[in-house]
Amino acid sequence: MNSSRAMRWLVVGVAVLVLAASALAEDLQPPWWRGQISTTSQFWEFNDSTIWPGEIVPPDGSPVGGQPFLPSTYLIWDVGPPPWDHWYQEDMPVEYQGRMVGLGVIPLSGIIDILVDNHDPKPENEKWMWVQLTWRPQDQGEFPEFIWIDPAPADPPQIIEEIPLGDLADPLHWRETTYFWKLDHNPPDETFVIEGTINVDELVVDTWCVIPEPASLALMGLGVAGLLARRRRK
Q1: Which residues lie closer than 8 Å to 18 by C-beta, 6 or more apart?
Q2: What distance in Å separates the CA atoms of residue 1 and residue 150, rounded to the nearest whole number?
Q3: 95 CB contacts (<8 Å, ≥6 apart)?
Q4: Dist CA 109 CA 114 (whole Å)
Q5: What is the per-residue burial (b if ≥16 Cβ within 10 Å, else e) of 37-74?
Q6: What 3-state class would DSSP assign to 82?
Q7: Is the pLDDT of residue 212 over 80?
Q8: Among candidate residues 136, 139, 117, the one with its CA nearest the CA of residue 186
Q9: Is the pLDDT of residue 199 over 50?
Q10: What is the pLDDT of residues 92-131, one digit of tens each?
């Protein structure tokens, strides 16, 4: 791929990232590489009323783009200490009484453990991870935190963008936060754990085993760096 074509890819990709509408209501910041070779894409909307803490939950529906996700891709969510370990009881706040799981929201107050399986892992290739989390705090000052990533990246997840989805005057408003990190190889699978006293509406995970030649890869890196710089300026 020549440099001019790579630059066109970069420009188009960033435009799609910023402007394009998505088929998913909260899939607002899809990575521009979605649908390319050696990518995976999976999402969870938590609309199934049979989902319970501690159970394995496969991705919803069909892949958003790229190669199909593998059957071993899944997440497990678990609640925190009392009273959240019995969040379904009648003495829970009205907001959580029969209105959460099955209507697209889980009251996390614990962890989500996600495993994403890969296609034909090639150890020499770089791996990019892109995670969109739609969430809101259950109390002021609460936020999601990545407490475990395996394999561990050289740099921790960076916030690419955060889009408010509700009234900014409300400190507990909904938001979609997009995280990015990269690995120096493509392992058989990736595992990460998100913790927080938060409500989760949707989780979208995209991965890419980056194959282009170094010149194109450098341009792509500049695109991500530009998004991060814009985030810092804000």
Answers
A1: none
A2: 32
A3: none
A4: 16
A5: ebbbbbbbbbeeeeeebeeebebbeebbbbbebbeebb
A6: coil
A7: no
A8: 117
A9: yes
A10: 444 444 445 556 788 777 899 999 988 766 666 789 999 9
Q: Which amino acid, residue 115?
A: L
Find where tokens 């069909």 sit: 62
Distance of alpha carbon 2 from alpha carbon 215, whole angstroms: 8
- Residue with token string 């009205």: 94
Angle (CA) 213-27-231 rounded to 5° is 65
C-alpha span between 165 and 139 (Å, rounded): 17
Task: Extract the tokens encoding 132.
Answer: 């969109």
Give ∠ CA 149-140-148 in degrees, rounded to 5.
5
Supply angle C-alpha 23, 72, 199, rounded to 5. 55
What pTM did the predictor assign? 0.74
The number of residues in the chain equals 234
